[in-house]
Amino acid sequence: MVIIYFILVFGLIITIHELGHLLAAKRFNVYCDEFAFGMGPKIISKKFKETTYSIRLLPIGGFVSMAGEPDATFDQADLPLERTIKGIAKWKQIIIMSAGVIMNFLLAITLFIGVNLINRQIVLPAKPIIAEVVSGSVAESAGFMANDEIIEVIYPSGDQIYPKDFSDVSMYFVLFPEQEVNFVVKRDNGEVNLKVTPKLDEASGRYLIGVTGVAGELKELTVLESIGQGFKDFKRSSLLILDGFKFLVRGIGVNQLSGPVGIIDQTNQIMDQSQSFGHAIMILMVLIATFSANLGIVNLIPLPMFDGGRILITLYEIIFKRDINEKLETALMLGSFALIVLLIIFTTFNDFSRIINR
Q1: CA 137, CA 133: separation in Å to the nearest integer?
Q2: What digits encode the pLDDT tens for the residues 92-122?
Q3: What domains are there in the chain, each with its CATH number?
Q4: Which residues contact 190 (CB under 8 A, 6 or more apart)?
Q5: Active-site annotation, residues
């Protein structure tokens, strides 16, 4: 079942992404030799009109092989220039390159809206006020008390968070495992500074300090409110991903990076919490939406193997009115591909280390 969940989650977001590229390319009459789900040797393939549709052995990616791409391996000798991606207008090239990311964002928004339309109710964010301090916890030792309002959290990196709701309090604990975090709480019309080191909770696999928040109010949603909440969920998910990138650029949280193995493990842990088939479907929808938003943002990274890098190259060609040197483009593609392979190896090592040490 774990493998099935993984294929459903990862397979759908990859297929939707590549489908965006395919549809945009065909709209501008660019020749597409193959549309593939997965990498490695072909398992099944079927040619329809001029494009071969295939499923490959490893469900860890996918691609659309277009004429004019520097890494295209099929024979293009008889194709006219206007049927290659290099032979169409630059703005059309950018649309084709952006289409995968757009499709991922649309998928995420659609699923987030769908979840809210099905539920038709949400728990409103709880204020960052402590309802209870767990007996024997590190929070109790640090001096936290019930009714304390958390107004500031200062992480070891010096980053300051001003929580808007209780879920913001532990947002970055995972980035600073076993490190002291400073809290500023409002108590009896004054401010109190408290220091505490989050500890790993074996049951949930999360770093916690041992406090619970007040219960959020349950709100029924209209159809329009459900749609609006879907957009809010997409925005929140995307901002969390972008915040994570900010830390990674500074070298913080590198050991928390996950790859395909981590996605399988995380999916398994979350699906274990499902209480029924319907609940499992809802969890899958949220997982797919979250990972789809994640994939869309990752693909905007300006590396030549990613859509963001290819868009950047095309913008360079527009600004300087000349195509980038083919040898340089190929070198950049190979270099970024090597970086991605190294990243996959690194994240896989991270994932197995976490699973073994759990």
Answers
A1: 8
A2: 999 999 999 999 999 999 999 999 999 999 9
A3: 1-124+221-358 (no CATH), 130-213 (2.30.42.10)
A4: none
A5: 18
